[in-house]
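Lest this sound abstract, we think one record worth quoting, the chain in one-letter code, the fold tokenised, each line plainly labelled:

>
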Amino acid sequence: MRRPVAADGPGVTALIAQCPPLDSNSAYCNLLQCTHFADSCVIAECDGAIAGWVSGYRPPSESDSFFVWQVAVASSARGQRLAGRMIEELLDRPSAQGVTHLITTVTDDNDASWALFEGLARRWNARLDKSALFDRDIHFAGAHATEWQARIGPLSRSLSRPSGSAASTDSKQGETAI
């Protein structure tokens, strides 16, 4: 696992396109995430190919929170807890110091995302609160399902991976092997 760079933009765009129901961002948006927001995004590679992507940021109005924007895992890498490990990697970074809550938005029908975030809340022994954030009719003019905010926390001081985890950190590179 590693921070993204600009050259990852096309690969991130391609991975997101392969992961419905994720909304496609513009290639330019993905480039900005890979550069301006690199500290709050992570790429997981397997055999030189992008196997996973998580984008996020710390909302200016909620500096104690980390917002997970998108989670994408290649079909070949699913079932290995990769999404959760990427999120934990982000929360373990120095740029996440002081984060007490993880937040995201998910539509009601996105069972995989709900399973991920409910599983993380259980793993972290933290509460998950759910509330409507962007309403289908009010905010999306009926063109998109309601986005429900999931808020997990408070988080413990460190979410470091348990001993014996399949992930290990390479201190020279600042990367984590999957």
